[in-house]
């Protein structure tokens, strides 16, 4: 009976040893759990970036395998790797960032040790997966909006020009000359006004900058005078500085309002499609008003 118990005990011990050995091997190789990083962070929609992780191998044998990258369980890409004993290696894939919520992680598959030339031993890795890296990427709208508007204006201007050429080719010469003369005069007027408004806009901006500088200097001077002894001459200087500061405080809002309206008119006269579109609307309203008065 005792011999039988000893036999069962030895059988259990020798059965456990191989599993313990395999488990021990899985502890010194794999992926550091929190090790996901990016070539650019933060990133925006459309950015071309690299997603990295690192594989470590504390064993003396060379480790081979494949790292697979996922985003919300969707396959992103994979990269084969080999790591010499007692060393680490970086593994990465290229990725074009898309808008939305992302949960990115990496996982090792097909891990095996090199036993001898051409001979491998598959192994189980306890640390075979990174932690999840969560990112939210918003759509890149604001950066593209100005270019989109400019392109639409350019396309509209080209279309108007094409229509004008068609009308010109099918109109009698006398009418064409009269229209061309009027159009040229109107176009010259538009160009001159546009240039004048741009110059005025630049001038107002410089005046605002000067007012800001004067306000800063006046405030500093007023503070300096206040700290010194106050004789009559210094009091007069203080009053002058205060008057300058008050004038700047009144003028600045008016200059900003003037700059606002100049900017709007400059935009209208700068682009043909906007200028002639508004002109056509105004002429239509005038003709409709006259028509209603007559009929």
At a glance:
This protein is α+β, with helices and mostly antiparallel strands and 295 residues long. It folds into two domains: 25-137, Immunoglobulins (Immunoglobulin-like); 171-294, no CATH class. It has helices at residues 2-25, 145-169, 173-227, 232-270, 272-294; strands spanning 29-31, 37-38, 48-57, 63-71, 74-83, 87-96, 100-116, 119-122, 133-137.
Short descriptors:
single chain; 295 residues; alpha+beta; Immunoglobulin-like; five-stranded antiparallel β-sheet; 9 strands
Describe the 3D structure:
The relative contact order is 0.08. This protein is α+β, with helices and mostly antiparallel strands and 295 residues long. Strands 4, 5, 7, 8 and 9 form a five-stranded antiparallel β-sheet that branches. Strands 1, 2, 3 and 6 form a four-stranded antiparallel β-sheet that branches. The protein folds into two domains: 25-137, Sandwich (Immunoglobulin-like); 171-294, no CATH class. The model is unreliable at 10-26 (pLDDT under 50). The protein is built from five helices and nine strands; from the N terminus they run αβββββββββαααα. Helix 3 (173-227) packs antiparallel against helix 4 (232-270).
- What number is the mean pLDDT? 76
Q: How many E-type strands?
A: 9
Q: What amount of the residues lies in strands?
A: 15-25%
Shape: elongated
How is the biggest beta sheet arranged? 5 strands, antiparallel
């Amino acid at each position: 009976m005792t011999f039988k118990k000893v036999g069962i005990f030895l059988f259990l011990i020798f059965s456990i040893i191989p599993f313990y050995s395999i488990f021990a091997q899985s502890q010194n190789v794999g992926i550091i759990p929190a090790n996901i990083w990016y070539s650019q962070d933060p990133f925006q929609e459309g950015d071309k970036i690299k997603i990295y992780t690192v594989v470590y191998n504390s064993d003396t044998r060379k480790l081979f395998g494949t790292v697979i990258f996922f985003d919300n369980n969707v396959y992103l890409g994979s990269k084969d790797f080999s790591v010499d004993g007692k060393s680490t290696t970086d593994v990465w894939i290229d990725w074009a960032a898309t808008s939305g919520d992302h949960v990115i992680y990496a996982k090792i598959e097909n891990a095996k040790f090199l036993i001898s030339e051409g001979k491998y031993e598959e192994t189980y890795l306890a640390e075979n997966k990174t932690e999840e890296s969560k990112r939210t990427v918003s759509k890149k709208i604001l950066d593209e909006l100005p270019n989109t508007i400019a392109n639409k204006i350019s396309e509209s201007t080209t279309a108007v020009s094409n229509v004008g050429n068609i009308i010109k080719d099918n109109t009698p010469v006398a009418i064409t000359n009269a229209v061309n003369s009027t159009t040229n005069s109107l176009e010259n007027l538009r160009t001159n006004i546009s240039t004048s408004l741009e110059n005025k806009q630049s001038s107002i901006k410089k005046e605002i900058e000067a007012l800001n500088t004067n306000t800063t200097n006046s405030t500093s001077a007023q503070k300096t005078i206040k700290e010194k002894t106050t004789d009559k001459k210094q009091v007069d200087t203080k009053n002058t500085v205060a008057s300058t500061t008050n004038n700047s405080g009144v003028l600045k809002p008016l200059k900003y309002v003037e700059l606002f309206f100049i900017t709007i008119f400059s935009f209208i006269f700068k682009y043909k499609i906007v200028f002639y579109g508004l002109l056509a609307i105004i002429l239509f309203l005038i003709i409709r008003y006259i028509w209603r008065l007559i009929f």
